[in-house]
Amino acid sequence: MDKKQPQNTNPKPSKPKLYWFYGIVLVVLLAIGLFGNSSSWQNLSKIDVSTFDRYLSAGDISEVNIIRNKSRVQVTVSPESLNKSEHLPLKNKGIFGDRSKGPHYEFEIGSLERFEERLEIADQEGTQFTVRYSSIENRWFSYFLNFLPFIIFILIWIYILRRMSSSGGGGPASHLFNIGKSRARLFDQKTEVKTTFKDVAGLEGAKEEVQEIVDFLKNPTKYTVLGGKIPKGALLIGAPGTGKTLLAKAVAGEAKVPFFSLSGSDFVEMFVGVGASRVRDLFKQAKEKSPAIIFIDEIDAIGRARGRNSITGTNDERENTLNQLLTEMDGFGTDTNVIVLAATNRADVLDKALMRAGRFDRQIFVDLPDLRERKEIFKVHLKPIKVNKNLDIDFLSRQTPGFSGADIANVCNEAALIAARRSSKSVNKQDFLDAVDRIVGGLEKKNKIITQEEKKTIAYHESGHAIVSWLLEFAAPLVKVTIVPRGQSLGAAWYLPEERQIVHTDQILDEMCAALGGRAAEDIVFNRISTGALSDLQKVTNQARAIVSVYGMNQTLGNITYYDKPQNDYNFTKPYSEETARIIDREISIIIEKQYKRAKEILQKYRDKLSQLAARLLEKEVIFKDDLEKILGKRPHLTQEEKIEMQQKSENKKTKSADSSEPRKEKINEDVK
Question: How far is CA 252 from CA 193, 194, 208, 364, in A?
Fold first, then answer.
């Protein structure tokens, strides 16, 4: 049983906030600015100019201090005059000390020149007093203003340091001091992950492998009691969109153990040693929370084979990161209960040391879904969509061969958008067909300007594809043909290719012949060819090269393959001689020209059918399988799906006949008895 960690009943006291400190500092600064004047601190008595004239005429004034910058005058009473009754309160001590020393009175003046004239008149009359000029300055406030830029700079620096040192900082500066820390996102019991294995349709083999890893983490004694050891890692390999990352999310939702998720690019940094430091910190955190799972998506960002693109004398940061990852995954600590999951679609470029047993013990291949799996994926993605009750999911799965899980999700979303654009209340079959066309062929461009001559050429080109593929046994059966521009193409023919595990030579040759049917039709009808067959030529050239140099299907070269996976990026040499290269080029050309001639022979035989089909295509712009049956008749060769259906029907008939014969046998036996 897992020991439950005791909850901390005494939570840590929160750190004291500095808001009060900042407030006190602000109040002090305001006080210095407002009450920094000497008069404010000394609390002088206020008088007016007439009272000053009376005191001056009576000889009570000993000193007059004129403050120029304030248009203010401070008056000091002579010691003898302090004994008078009207000045007697000045001898009392104030809050800030003895007030008898002065100054005692204060008043404001309007014009300094007129006040000076008044003092000259009093001086001429024989009044004894002293005149002094001064300016009041707030020294503390002046000091503060002088040091204000430095104070602001220090406060900003302290704020930046606090942001940098905080673990939850989200900006670029937050990683300056945490640059060597792992950027993995942690999913644990505090983080709810809603994705489970129920949300992953298909991928039965991959789910079985991953479920065993999850079960190992939940119930390790079930396996260790028999002497088994936990696998160190599992590598998910598959084409883009097949569901590798989704499978990892399901692991996070099912495992109920800490799950660290990050991408391979999170280790890569411009600073030397940062990637290795992040790897160490990642495994340190995982070991502290073990049992745990680490998921590294797109591991080829750091897992490429070492020695590629290396320059002598340089320090490759990516290789240092990979070396640290290899060290952490090595079999020194098998009792840590930390499993590493990784995903990539480029397993051929990974380092061999990363793929050996003891590191990634299991390599789980996530293939494109087959017919049954596509049906299950459709069921998952159709749950949130309001579909028509009569929608046939089997039909949708048959119409999407070669689609990945991400493609199917895109089809469902695109169909919902198309239905919403039509203001429909539900998504029907036609919406899904339009969505497939939109994804495969691109957006329709009905407003694209095409001349009538070009339109006629496109119609005969697509009709040539349709007729040749209709008559050949192993060519993909036609679904529909259109001359409406879509994406980058001016016309398109939709086929429903059969799902084959292995391909024979005759199947490849038939597909090449069907691909060359468009150019052959142009040659027959117009006695010229156009640039519209570029994609067809690229396709047949690649197929012919594969026949000759990859699969060993050419009689001239024999059972040999020249497919050589490059071991490094500097492999510029070909794995065959110049003479063999000339033979390969000649055989490729022979195969292509032979199939082109074959396509022309078929179209010349059905020349009138070609014209009829092109005319109907020009009239309707889009034709379907039914239109071909009206012009060419039933397809002479059955598809693999039709063969399977006929076989199933014959088997059902046999079982029914066997069931009906059993009662007859029983009756005969009874008669014999």
Answer: 7, 9, 15, 17
662 pairs with which residues across the strands? none
Locate 611 and state its tokens: 């014209």
DSSP SS3 for 95: coil
- pLDDT single digits (tens) 396-439: 888 888 888 888 889 999 999 989 988 888 888 888 888 888 88
Report which of 270, 271, 269, 293 is spatially closest to residue 282, judged by C-alpha positions: 293
- Name, of 8-17, 270-279, 664-673, the range with top average pLDDT: 270-279
Q: How many other CB atoms are there within 10 angstroms of residue 517's CB atom?
A: 34
Concatenate the DSSP letters of all residues of 406-448 into one string. Answer: HHHHHHHHHHHHHHHHTT-SSB-HHHHHHHHHHHHH--B-TT-
Q: Report, as an integer, the average pLDDT of 362-389.
A: 86
pLDDT tens for each residue of 602-653: 999 999 988 888 888 888 888 887 888 888 888 777 666 666 666 666 666 6
> Do 257 and 291 form a contact (C-beta atoms < 8 A)?
yes
Q: 361 or 446: whose pLDDT is higher?
A: 361
Tokens of 120: 């000259």
C-alpha to C-alpha distance for 188 and 426, rounded to whole angstroms: 39
Neighbouring C-alpha atoms within 13 Å toward the C-beta of 576: 17
Which residues, in sequence order, are CB contacts of 499 under 8 Å at separation 6+? 370, 371, 401, 402
Question: What share of the chain in percent tops pLDDT 90?
Answer: 8
Comparing C-alpha atoms, which of 511, 490, 435, 506 is closest to residue 617?
Answer: 490
* H/E segment holding residue 54: helix 49-57
Q: Give one DSSP letter per residue of 581-636, joined into a string.
A: HHHHHHHHHHHHHHHHHHHHHHHHHTHHHHHHHHHHHHHHSEEEHHHHHHHH-S-S
**Residue 340, φ and ψ in degrees, nearest 5:** -105, 120
Alpha carbon distance 67, 108 (integer Å): 10
The span from the CA of 589 to the CA of 583, in Å, is 10
Q: Which two tokens stand for residue 89?
A: 């309160």
DSSP 8-state assignment for residue 198: G
Q: Which two tokens mark 13?
A: 């006291």
Tell me how far apart the alpha carbons of residues 411 and 400 are, in angstroms, rounded to a whole number: 9
The count of other CB atoms within 10 Å of the CB of residue 488 is 9
Query: What residues contact residue 386 under an 8 Å CB cut-off, 6+ apart?
Result: 425, 426, 427
The H or E element containing residue 233 is strand 233-238
pLDDT at 8 over 60: no
**Rounded (10°) CA dihedral 363, 367, 372, 377:** 100
In the block, tokens 């060993």 appear at 552
Measured between alpha carbons, how far is 114 from 463 in angstroms, rounded to an integer?
112
- How confident is residue 595, by pLDDT bands cut at 50, 70 and 90? very high
Exactly one of 462, 511, 522, 587 is catalytic; name it: 462
Give the Cβ contact number of residue 163 at 10 Å: 16
**Active-site residue 462, yes or no?**
yes
Which DSSP string do the residues of 481-512 spell out, in sequence order? EE-S-BTTBS-EEEE-----SS--HHHHHHHH
- 457 exposure class (CB count in 10 Å sphere: 0-12, 13-18, 19+): buried
CA atoms within 13 A on the CB side of 610: 30
